Amino acid sequence: MILALSLNTALDKTLVLRRLEAGRRHLPECCLDLAGGKAINAARALVRFGRKVHVLGFVAGHTGRRVEALLAKEGVPARWIRLPRGESRTCITVVHGAMAPTEFNEPGPAVPRASLLRLEACFLRMLKGCRFALLCGRLPPGVPADFYARLIRAAREQGVPCALDASAPALEPGLRAGPDLVKPNVVEMAELGLSTEPRRWRGSLQRLVGLGAREVFVSLGPRGALLGTASEAMHAAGPRLRGCPLGCGDTFLAAAVHGFLSGWPLRRRLAFAVAAASANVLTLGGGLFQERHLRDILSQVRVRSLPNSSQNW
Fold it and tell me: pTM here?
């Protein structure tokens, strides 16, 4: 079983418009409501890869109950800690024409100390029966910056590997706790002061490994992705596709974890993660993709080792 921690759970609403014009009323051509947040999107993708996943997270208010019901309808098991006040956030994505999606993401509700301690105790109990733990998403108010780091160290003590997908201020302390896998994107690399310019790829990967991560996957959007370890550095790219990128990074992470648990070599894991993320572009909803798209794109992904000359950072 894979344990997916969802601290900043959301109701994801996707609206598809023919076009978006300021100051006008719009009637969407399509609407999609899903339980969301990075961990839930990744969990949804892992289920599609045939993995058993259990979500643990916070929900609040009427929106939280809606999220619970939606995820239960998908058949993904979950253990929820209900917050005493506030509403789980709603994230609205408007897909319009050929333009990039427009997103409106509410902040999450504040987490009281008692609720945080309850979730941490539940996480530690559930570690005993799992093969891997996913720690994903921005920290909501009330959660200290070193929270993911604490959980990573606790998982290591029980022999459970972890993946970290977080932003500042949780990313750097989480890295120093030594996760088995970390997946920053371009924005999160910038938060660490690291470049995603091609000539600096290898050096940036070395820096991330030096901070404590065993394996580093960096998602670069349309430019593909990077993978770095203490001894290897590589880049993969697939076809450039038009669609909705919502949740592609989460699908990428799920694919990387699936490859890790399958014991695949690094090149295969990177290619598979890029293909899965690209397949997600062609389907509305984070963590959703069609297997035929994945197979077709995977045949077009190319992986290459990075030259040693690009090591300055």
Answer: 0.94
Question: Torsion-angle region of residue 247: left (phi > 0), alpha (psi -120 to 50) or beta?
Answer: left
pLDDT surpassing 60 at residue 195: yes
Q: Are 246 and 101 in contact (CB under 8 A)?
A: yes
Give the domains, in start order, of the chain with CATH numbers.
2-15+29-305 (3.40.1190.20)
Task: State how far the Cα of 180 lies from the Cα of 194, in Å rounded to an integer.
Answer: 20
- Transcribe 18-78 into DSSP letters: S---TTS----SEEEEEEESHHHHHHHHHHHTT--EEEEEEE-HHHHHHHHHHHHHHT--E
What are 215's two structure tokens?
A: 């394996």
* pLDDT score, position 141: 95
Under 8 Å between Cβ of 60 and 85: yes
pLDDT band at 99 (very low <50, low <70, confident <90, very high): low
Q: Rounded CA gap, 269 and 277, in Å? A: 12
153 burial (CB, 10 Å; 0-12 / 13-18 / 19+) is: middle
State the amino acid at position 312 in one-letter form: N
Residue owning tokens 């945080």: 116
pLDDT of 311 over the 50 cut: no
Which carries the bigger pLDDT value, residue 307 or residue 265? 265
User: What is the per-residue pLDDT across 76-90, written as a single tens digit (0 to 9) for each?
Assistant: 999 999 999 999 999
Q: Regarding beta strands 225-228 and 233-237, do their DSSP bridges make them parallel or antiparallel, or are they unpaired?
A: antiparallel
Are the CB atoms for 182 and 253 separated by under 8 Å? no
Q: Nearest-CA neighbor of 88 among 199, 145, 9, 180?
A: 9
pLDDT digits (tens, 9 = 90+) for 268-290: 999 999 999 999 999 999 999 99
Q: CA-to-CA distance for 220 and 30, rounded, in angstroms?
A: 28
